[in-house]
């Protein structure tokens, strides 16, 4: 759940939070209407960038072959990456 919050919710809500913080420090909150379209687009772009960065930046050395989950002697063996040459 914390990963969802950090990679999706935080970037999605950050532009709106920064905008309202900026308005409150300037004291001009009632001067004009809120640009919701730009805040939503900015949040979606930030969330998309975060997802791409997390998707590209995570994961380790995946050399080997994937062995799907299976049953051995009545026990479920979880899926895993087997080293090259084994299996």
Order of helices and strands: HHEEEE
Number of domains: 1
Mean of the pLDDT scores? 83
Annotation, overall tally of beta strands: 4
* Rg: 22 Å
Shape: elongated
> Percent range for helical residues?
40-55%
Instruction: Tell me the span between the first and last alpha carbons.
Output: 35 Å
Largest sheet: 2 strands, antiparallel
Strand order of the largest sheet: 1-4
Number of helices: 2
Report strand %. Answer: 5-15%
Structural class: alpha+beta
Unreliable stretches covering 5 or more consecutive residues: none
Characterization of the model:
The chain is of the alpha+beta class and 87 residues long. It has one domain. 54% of the residues lie in helices and 14% in strands. Helix 1 packs antiparallel against helix 2 (36-57). The radius of gyration is 22 Å and the shape is elongated. The mean pLDDT is 83.
């Amino acid at each position: 759940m914390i990963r969802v919050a950090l990679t999706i919710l935080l970037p999605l809500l950050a532009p709106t939070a920064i905008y309202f913080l900026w308005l409150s420090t300037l004291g001009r909150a009632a001067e004009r209407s809120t640009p919701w379209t730009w805040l939503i687009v900015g949040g979606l772009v930030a969330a998309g960038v975060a997802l791409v960065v997390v998707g590209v930046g995570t994961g380790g050395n995946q050399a080997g072959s994937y062995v799907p989950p299976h049953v051995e002697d009545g026990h479920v063996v979880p899926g895993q990456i087997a080293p090259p040459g084994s299996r």
